Amino acid sequence: MGTRDTIRTAVRHVVPPAGLTRALAVQAMVYAVGHGLFQAGSAVFFTRALGLSPAQVGFGLSLAAGVSLLGTVPLGGLTDRYGPQRVWVFGQLLQAALFAAYPFVGGFPGFLAVVVALALVDAASGTARQVYSINALRPEERVTALAYQRSLLNVGFGLGAVISGLVLAVDTIAAYRGMVWFIATVFLVTAVFVRRLPRLPEATRPTEPMSRLAVLRDRPFMTVALLSGLLTAHQTLYLTVLPLWVLTRTDAPKTVIAGLVLLNTVLVVLLQVRASRGADTAPGAARASRRGALLISLFCLVLPISGVTGGTLTVVVLVAAATVLTVAELVESGGAWGLTSTLPPAAQRGAYVGAFRLGSQLQFLAGPIGLTALGVTSGGWGWFPMAALFALVGLAVLPAVAWAERTPRLGEATPEAERVTPVP
C-alpha cells in the first residue's frame, strides 16, 4: 500500500490536473519537442545544410541575442495592446514560417535575417505565453501551473533530443531539411492548440497610457528583476561552467557530463511542482528566491572539492554539487514565477513581464564569460567570491521585494493584492 501511495504521489506531481493547467502543460511539452530538437541539431544544420562557418554561426546567434535583449520590453508591450493569446498565436505562426524558410536561406545575410527574426518572435511569444498563464488562472494556481509546464517542458526537450539523435545518425541534407520542416509543423500545431484555449476578458487599460519603455523607470520592480535575473545563473553554471570544470579541472570521465544533464532533467520532471510550493505570494516568492540564491552559493563551495579528489570520490562530489544546483534551480524558478504573477499590474503585465525577463537575458549575455572566468580560468579560487556574490543577492531579494510591494506600479494609485479578473 505504501508503494502504491508513493507512486500515486509521484504521478500527481508530474501529471497536471485536468483542465486548463493540463492543457497549458501539454502545449509546453509539444513546443519543447520542436525547441529541443533544434537546440540539439542546429549547429550541424547550420554548418552542413546551410554551409556556414562556425564563426558565422556564432556571430549570428550573438547578434540575435543582442537584438532580442533590446526588444524585450517593447515586445512585451505588444501583449498588453493586442492580448496575450493573439500575440502568442501569431508568434507561433511566424516561427513556423521562419523555420519552413530555413532550408531556402541563401548564404550568411539570409541566415542573419531569419535567426534575428526568430529571436524577436520567440521573445514576444514567450512573454505572451507567460502572461496568458497568469491571467487565465486563479492566483493560488498560477505558480503550480507554471511548474507543471516546466516539468513537461523538460519531457519535451528530452523527446526532441532523442529525435535529433536519429537525424544526426542519418546525417544527410534531406534529413536536416526534414528536421526544420518537422519543427515548423510543431509550431503550426502549437498555434492551433493555443487558438483553441479559452479566451480571456481584456484587462482594464490604464487611464494614462504609458510609453513602452516606461516600466524601466519603476526602480523597485527593476531592482527585483535584475536580482532575480542574476539567479538564473544556475542555468549557465549547469550547462556551461560545470561541464568545463569537469573537463579541465577534475579526473572524472567525460561521460559524467551526460549523466549530470540527465540527472538534472529527471529531477526537474519529478520535483519541480513540489519545489514551487509556497511561492504563490510575493513574500513567499521572495523567500524561495533567497533559498535558491543560498543554494547556488552552497554549490559554489561544494564543486571546487572535486578538483582535489580522485576517482569515485570525484564523481560523488560532482553528483552532490549538481544535485544542490538543480534544487536551487527548482526553488528559484518557483520564486521567479511568483514574482511575475504578483508584482506586475494587469493592464501592463506584458511590459512588466518583458522587463522582468530583461534581468535573465543580461545574465545570459554576460554570465558565460564572467562565470567561466571566475570558476574555471581562475583555477578554482574564483568560486569563493562567486559564492559570496550569490549569498549577497539572496540577502537583498527580500528587502527589494518588500520595497516593490509597498510602491505603486506605474499607472496605479496604490498597490493592489490582485489586479486581474480570474477565469473560473
Tally of DSSP helical segments: 14
| First-residue to last-residue Cα separation | 36 Å
Low-confidence stretches: 414-424
Q: Give the helix level as a range of percent.
A: over 70%
- Structure class: mainly alpha
Q: Beta-sheet strand percentage?
A: under 5%
Cα-based radius of gyration, to the nearest Å: 21 Å
Spell the H/E element sequence: HHHHHHHHHHHHHH
Explained architecture:
The chain has 424 residues and is mainly alpha-helical. It has 2 domains: 183 residues, MFS general substrate transporter like domains (Growth Hormone, Chain: A, Up-down Bundle); 193 residues, Growth Hormone, Chain: A (Up-down Bundle). Helix content is 77%, strand content 0%. It has 14 helices and no strands. The longest helix has 32 residues. The chain is globular and about 60 Å long. The C terminus is likely disordered.
Gist of the model:
With 424 residues, the protein is mainly alpha-helical.
Topology:
Blueprint: H1 2-12, H2 20-49, H3 54-82, H4 84-101, H5 108-136, H6 139-170, H7 173-195, H8 219-231, H9 233-249, H10 255-275, H11 282-302, H12 312-342, H13 349-377, H14 383-406
